[in-house]
Amino acid sequence: MSIADIGEFGLIARVVARLENGPKVLLGPGDDGAVVAAPDRRVVASTDVLVEGRHFRRDWCTALDIGHRAAAANLADIAAMGAEPTALLVAFCAPADLAAEWAEDLASGLSAEAALVGASVVGGDMSSSPTLTIAVTALGDLGGRPPVVRGGAQPGDILALAGRTGHAAAGYTILSRGFRTPKALVEAYRRPEVPYAAGPLAAQHGATSMIDISDGLLQDVGHIAAASLVAIDVRTDAFTVPGQMRDAATALGLDPFQWLLAGGEDHALAATFPAGVPLPEGWQEIGRVFDGAGVTVDRKPWSGAPGWDHFR
Amino acid sequence: MSIADIGEFGLIARVVARLENGPKVLLGPGDDGAVVAAPDRRVVASTDVLVEGRHFRRDWCTALDIGHRAAAANLADIAAMGAEPTALLVAFCAPADLAAEWAEDLASGLSAEAALVGASVVGGDMSSSPTLTIAVTALGDLGGRPPVVRGGAQPGDILALAGRTGHAAAGYTILSRGFRTPKALVEAYRRPEVPYAAGPLAAQHGATSMIDISDGLLQDVGHIAAASLVAIDVRTDAFTVPGQMRDAATALGLDPFQWLLAGGEDHALAATFPAGVPLPEGWQEIGRVFDGAGVTVDRKPWSGAPGWDHFR
């Protein structure tokens, strides 16, 4: 049954039936707006959009997977501010001949990923469109802490990483070459494993800056360097190339460090901490902050692409 | 110069330069998330999406107009909860060959409409897409009041309207028939005049239910009737057909009440109030709430379409 068959309001009813309201939801879907708790009198908000063919392909991922990915991309931005996600709102544009079940499964994926951090899908909008598009806004709660911004890194700080990089990019490359294995890498692309708790934990432990790695470690760390007016060096010896990633890179004739250092969409978090502060659980040192500008790898310029530009 | 020429980050810099941060913005664009004041420990949030060809046409409206309309559609939802809008987030998808200036002008329109109510564009995301798409999320502050939901209308209540209906629909019909005048109606389509202040005012004066009329008065009042388990009757003698609208309808062989009662996109507000309560400024009585179900016009079924379905 297509979306056109059941109509906008029929689809909304089916989608809302897939959602669960968590404890932060004071008024859920179904009205002109939702009402969400903002206990510390501030709300963190972030928006990310996924476009078919650009951010996902229906032949590579199920609707459930894409729901998980769309939610993860947004929830990770909230975590990267040091906040706890509370709610998602979703604008969904789709061709009218799309199966209604696809939209319902997408909602299930969004709701399930949000539930991992106690957040809920509280609202949204739908429209027909020739291009399947999913725009998600995430809200979050800072728990009384200042937000951890990109501009606070200081020379002498440690650069640290929570979560993994390169896995989603390797999975993407594998799928784009027509392969379906290794399964662990393909699954990493389909559903990122985001270290959500590491964000607020970093804030509690005095992180001086933080960012969600959505476009590639070097490019995103470059945003910290630019905003903080510092130079950042990433050490390759801090990374272990997983065996399956090394094998896949060898088979495809690629350098696995291009995935690890410049691949996006795992939604790892990068943060800087004052030197000498013990890193919180889940964080490992991968570099240092220096006087200067730009990002280097083992103190040398990186010759590959640093990440992804959504218009090029 | 196209978006592709200047790239994602170049475009973000240009767009952000068009924005102004209002007093509710604690951290504006440029980080993983924005931080917005939520003084009463709750935040109202709503999302609306506009798709080219479906919600707007570039040959009918300037980018500035479309920015105003996209913001208005969302800000009106916040007002319809009885809240004051504080912030907008915008997901923008466009073909890479779109002129960068178009995107900049869109940002100016969004920012200017938000500024009418003291709100600001605080964040967003961009992606290339074959379909120009603008998804906006609005946040708002309830000022300590309960939200005014759709489900609170009681038999005996007055149905009241703030703002105008039918103007945008008339302008749309005029444009779609290839005309450009009357200018007042065409302009009403291009830039709705939303009675933002009437929303919080209605909440303060005890409105029992409220909705933003985005799809058509009868259809949207029908949502109040359905959520409140009541019947609502709209009286046509409460409406004055403006001279230009009557003339345009006559020239096109149409019934102007189809515009007034079933045309969307003016973003008027409809609300119910207990009988005997003086209506606040800007509100006028247009009907009554009864026991029963459904919406009638002059106590009879309406034979035309009640409004708009985005998938049909």
UniProtKB/TrEMBL annotation, chains A, B:
One GO MF term: kinase activity
Pathway the protein acts in: Cofactor biosynthesis; thiamine diphosphate biosynthesis; thiamine diphosphate from thiamine phosphate: step 1/1
Residues bound to Mg(2+) 2: D48, D77
Residues at which substrate binds: H55, E265, W308
Keywords: ATP-binding, Kinase, Magnesium, Metal-binding, Nucleotide-binding, Thiamine biosynthesis, Transferase
Positions that bind Mg(2+) 3: D32, D77, D212
Binding site for ATP: G124, D125, R150, S214
Residues reported in the UniProt entry to bind Mg(2+) 1: T47, D48, D125
This enzyme's EC code(s): 2.7.4.16
Domain spans labelled PurM-like N-terminal: 30-140
Protein family membership: Belongs to the thiamine-monophosphate kinase family.
Miscellaneous comment text of the record: Reaction mechanism of ThiL seems to utilize a direct, inline transfer of the gamma-phosphate of ATP to TMP rather than a phosphorylated enzyme intermediate.
Purpose: Catalyzes the ATP-dependent phosphorylation of thiamine-monophosphate (TMP) to form thiamine-pyrophosphate (TPP), the active form of vitamin B1.
Protein name (record): Thiamine-monophosphate kinase
Source organism: Paractinoplanes durhamensis
Gene that encodes the chain: thiL
